[in-house]
Amino acid sequence: MRWGMTNVECRMTNGRRALAFVILYSLLVTSALAEPPAFNGLFPAGGQIGSRVETEVNGKGLEKGTFLAWSSDSHVVVLGGDKPKKFFLNIAKDAVPGPCLVRLYNETDASPPRIIEVGKFEEVIEKEANDTFADAKKGEARMNVTINGVLEKAGDVDTYAIRVQKGKGVTLDLHGYALGSSMDPAMRLLNDRGVEIAAGHDTHNLDPRIEYTPTADGTLFVQLFAFVHPPAADVSFKGTANHVYRLKVTDEAKLVPVLSEPGKLTLPAVVNGCISKAGKEDAYTFTAKKGDDLQISLRAQRMRSLLDATLRIEDEMGKALQQADDGDGLDPTLRWKAPKDGEFKLIVGDRFQHGSAEHHYELTVKPFVSSLTATLDTHAYRLEAGKTVEVKLTVKTNGTFAGKIKAQVAQLPVGVTAESVDVPAKGGEVKFTLKAAADVAANQVPFAVELVTSAPDAVETVMASYAVPFLEPRGDLLIMTDTHPWLTVVATKKP
Q1: DSSP per residue over 258-285, as a string?
Q2: pLDDT tens sequence across 331-361
Q3: 371-490: CATH number
């Protein structure tokens, strides 16, 4: 056994230790830099047109570095504040109400996109204490506002006073799940004695909506709480910093589409209708020639209608020729070829024979046109200098195309290239490769993947999209897909 070392051995050992430390340190730094920001969302998750809103990001590790932000809407600029996790939303005066996406990114990676919303009403920020009916009675009653809040702890309940007028319909529309918050919210409307007079839970997704017409002028109270999503065995009220919501409270008159009476259709046609009572069906007649190829589609769920629609085509003798009750989401679509010359009947109904003024729909009948969709395998890609990354694309075709279909990449930064690839006529999975030059500069940019169809008489371009990432979708988010995949380009590290 040796109890000592020579000077040479000591220097060699120290050298190895130093080298090992450098390697370990480099690995730790590289690992830290490569880890994307854990960006869960913003609070408040939006703002009013023409305003500048200070907002705070929710997520782990965001206080340790400097992050930039990108918005999918050029009218919404997201700027970093003077403190970590603080940002400003600069919303232009000509912005349009609705949602957009925001990403955070640093030198080496980017977060998944998160949803924010531009509104037209005054924005109100939740003020504690507001957990009880008694708390809400002390607050100011408002109308035509968007209330921003967070159910931030287990058992949290938020209550707000609203000012109402007799006979003037009130709409309470909450966006929580629709923003990507991991919550299943519910809502109650209380009178001035604290008695529940209306309630809402799930609508077309997990978010609640209440429509109510007051019988007197005065103050009512809306109360919000939430369960966890994805669901758990424990059904108690839940809350986290990510249980962010926006509650729009308005008594503005709703825009009601002009309804068409069922009858004769002149093709092509777009009509608005309503299954106004239980058991009712709307029947439309139209004339077609043998071989006429028609695309028949109906929008209901996508318009937040209560209608679970069915479509049925009958001949002049009442024989059912084709039917559908599902298609794009829950809304039915049909491609139908006329078997002969004659008059046919198109019938719209509700799958469960329900009906009301909220069971409205939009029906479109037009000549069939071939179409295609393309879905990317993920929302973001990371490419190192001198290397390649594979991008997968799933293409679905509806109909046939006379010319070739090509997939190509656009809006790539300097030093990154990709060759176009042919897409099989029947669709399927295709792959292409992004390649970075050895001396490529570091970059963070959105890019685009296009499908180009060429025929003798036309060239059409379709943008590929990715699904906005979310756990266990239970209905629509405000934005379900996006055509701006993200590319992180990492340059060669200098010695």
Answers
A1: PPPPS-B--SSEEEEEE--STT--EEEE
A2: 999 999 999 999 999 999 999 999 998 899 9
A3: 2.60.40.10
